[in-house]
Amino acid sequence: MTTLAVLIFILVYIGMALGRVPGLRLERTGVALLGLIVLLASGDLSLDEAARAIDLPTIALLFALMILSAQFEQSGFYGLVASRVTHAARNPKALLAILIAVTGLLSAILTNDVIAFALTPLICSGLLTQKLDPRPYLVALAGAANAGSALTLIGNPQNILIGQSGGLDFWRYLVFALPPVILSLAFVYWAVMATWKSALAAPIDPVPAEPVRISRVQTGKGLIAIIVLIVLFLTPLPRELGALAVAGLLLLSKRLSSRDMIGGVDWHLLLLFACLFGVTAAFAKTGLAQDALARLAASGILPERLSVMLPVTLASSNTIGNVPAVILILKLLPSLPQGVLTGLALLSTFAGNLLLTGSMCNIIVAERAEASGARLGFGNFARSGIPMTLASLAVTGLWLWVTGLMLL
């Protein structure tokens, strides 16, 4: 049984790295689900064990934030933002800066995957209308969504998971993360400008923006929901319960259908999370990972040290993806100090900007862009992603060491 659990674990995480099974239309969520089914059928993992392995507070918080995002999508807010951003400047440099700033801010509040999913086709449409090469702006969109999401414990799935499992304080984390996040957003701008000089040198063809229908009432309702959510984060109420309460109130609408709101939830991502929790739990039962970690500790190689955590997050985020990597790390190392968890949140998020496969957000941008008539290739992303990521990780590592949160 141990052999099967290890084999399934390896195959599932290879599937996470590849993104799909060659020859089949089986993508990441399908791979994880199939792996879990095999483990359940073989008896390596019982249904009760699989259920207990799922971190329900994390799933609940992510679900609630998706409902909040659906409120803005249904109100037309995202369409208005995309239109204003793509028509806000006549200078490509200014347009790039505005796109990075807006995307980074929205991602910190409404999660990067959701923002990438909603804005990418709208941004593509606006750029193509103005006869601009969308590739540098798409790289900037993905890079800013990742970098900006590191600001809060609700900015991306891995931060939600880390914050929930480690009981991190929302506001203390935000204050600590602010300096490296601001610098990382600046590195996104610098890297794109440096690697896409010719594409960003072309003048912008001034095309009038098409009118966007937006419900001010529903947008206002969403903004009030964000304020209420922030206030609830100041109370002892668990974050997931406060977010669910806000989501429940948003569903009480005379104008917006609850079916449309719930349909805006990324159920594939939630199912991916649930399956990976089960697969990693089955692997942890074998004891192999714990034995390996014990041997490393005996040799003085401690996972909580910056010299170990930084390369581990960089390598794992860009092979299996930062969300699966964090699920695995937290399962194998359940007692990491809060300072190390803060470092893990920042490092794993910034590491996802290295390659197109580094984070789900990058993949969402590429897939949504292709469906909108703009192709963002692996090499297109890497030329900017590598310098922005190495710069961000260097500054963040220095920040974690100087502040004493992580030992070198």
Reconstruct the topology from this structure.
Blueprint: H1 2-18, H2 28-42, H3 47-53, H4 56-75, H5 77-86, H6 92-110, H7 112-129, H8 134-149, H9 157-166, H10 170-195, H11 197-201, H12 216-233, H13 239-251, H14 258-263, H15 267-285, H16 288-298, H17 306-317, H18 322-332, H19 338-351, H20 360-371, H21 378-402
Structure commentary:
The chain is an all-alpha fold and 408 residues long. The protein has one domain. Helices cover 75% and strands 0% of the residues. The protein contains 21 helices and no strands. It has helices at 2-18, 28-42, 47-53, 56-75, 77-86, 92-110, 112-129, 134-149, 157-166, 170-195, 197-201, 216-233, 239-251, 258-263, 267-285, 288-298, 306-317, 322-332, 338-351, 360-371, 378-402. The chain starts with a helix and ends in a 6-residue tail after the last helix. The model has no long low-confidence stretch (mean pLDDT 85).
Average residue-wise pLDDT? 85
Q: Tell me the number of structural domains.
A: 1
Radius of gyration, in angstroms, nearest whole number: 21 Å
As residue ranges, the low-confidence spans are: none
Question: Could you say which structural class the secondary elements and strand pairing correspond to?
Answer: mainly alpha
How helical, in percent, are the residues?
over 70%
Task: Note the beta-strand portion.
Answer: under 5%
- Biggest sheet overview: none
Order of helices and strands: HHHHHHHHHHHHHHHHHHHHH
Number of continuous helical runs:
21
Name the shape in a single word: globular
Number of distinct beta strands: 0
Oligomer: single chain
Question: What's the end-to-end separation, in Å?
Answer: 39 Å
